[in-house]
Amino acid sequence: MFPILADVTTEHQLWLDATVRAEVVDELKVSFTQHVRTADSVHRVNQVIPELGVSYGFLDYFSIGAGGRYSLEKNDDGESERSVRLHGQMGIESPDLGPVELG
Question: Domain tally for the chain?
Answer without folding.
Answer: 1
